[in-house]
Design brief:
The structure is a homodimer of 171-residue chains.
Chain A (H helix, E strand, L loop, with lengths): L1 E6 L4 E10 L2 E11 L6 H19 L3 E6 L6 H20 L4 E5 H8 L7 H12 L7 H22 L3 H8 L1
Parallel strand pairs in A: 1-4, 4-5
Antiparallel strand pairs in A: 1-2, 2-3
Helix pairs in contact in A: 1-2, 3-5, 4-5, 5-6
Chain lengths: 171, 171
């Protein structure tokens, strides 16, 4: 089971690719798609879409996992984030991949075991869980965390263990 | 000059296609892409993208105009709107079309001559300006209005008349 995790953002979109082999998680790639803040919005969105499309073509993931956002600081930043998030979801669905969404609480619980974990804890735990040589960039680490969350809920669902968590994860 | 105007929305995305021939505006098509509120978000976004792609392939517009949104009621609705708006911008840029954005103030000023015009006034004026047999659906009328705004600012820019308005329109 190969998973592409995406942490969309108007300036920086993190991505992380992992393989799940039974209980093992194997890191394949992670990185950040950084757009120029001065460039036209349509061009920036096209860059995000094109890079995600390339990653899907290169790595052939079987599922895409995207962080679900409930709270944004204000309407203006929510609108900007929505643009990038729409692009991420579209990239998955147009590649005919199942697209799962997880809340930050689900992601943090799955990776750190604590729903209010800090960014640095996510970076440390993704490094540990995936045996990375160094901590990943912040958004890339978040993307890896979403992918791990998907692997986790998928495995649980497959074993019919703790079904309440599995169903929450797949909602 | 053929223009596709888009009024993106999380539930309903309006579109309007017009031809500009000198001072004349000719209506080609308008309508609303309505998504099922119960369907997965990624599928709804894919429906919007696919329909816009089909319209571009069928009508071959030379430009896309999308309403720019500054204010949303709250972060949650701004986020939803952002998803659909990102899709609209992407559909234009991936068809290699110039994508222009106009504020509601610019659109209303161009179509009704009054920046605080009501929705019904937009519907009435687009009907009059384009000699429609009946008023268009609300979102479709807004999309036609964005297209008219683009035609207007483009014509002004071409004639180097009122450059301050033209440059505002093309920003």
């Amino acid at each position: 089971m190969r998973i592409l995790g995406i942490d969309p953002g108007s300036r920086t979109t993190g991505y992380g690719l992992i393989d799940q082999q039974g209980n093992r998680l194997i890191h394949l790639d992670n990185g950040a798609i950084i757009t120029r803040s001065g460039a036209p919005l349509a061009d920036r969105l096209n860059l995000i879409y094109t890079r995600l499309e390339e990653l899907i073509q290169e790595f052939h993931p079987q599922a895409v996992a995207v962080e679900r956002v409930f709270v944004a600081r204000n309407p203006a930043s929510a609108l900007k984030l929505g643009h990038a998030r729409g692009i991420a979801l579209l990239a998955g669905v147009r590649a005919n991949l199942p697209v799962a969404e997880y809340t930050a609480l689900q992601v943090k619980s799955a990776v750190v075991g604590y729903g209010r974990a800090a960014k640095t804890q996510i970076q440390q735990m993704t490094r540990t869980l995936l045996s990375l040589p160094e901590i990943a960039q912040e958004d890339a680490a978040d993307a890896l965390a979403v992918a791990i969350c998907h692997a986790h809920s998928h495995r649980l669902a497959g074993k019919i263990m703790r079904p309440e968590l599995a169903s929450r994860g797949q909602r």
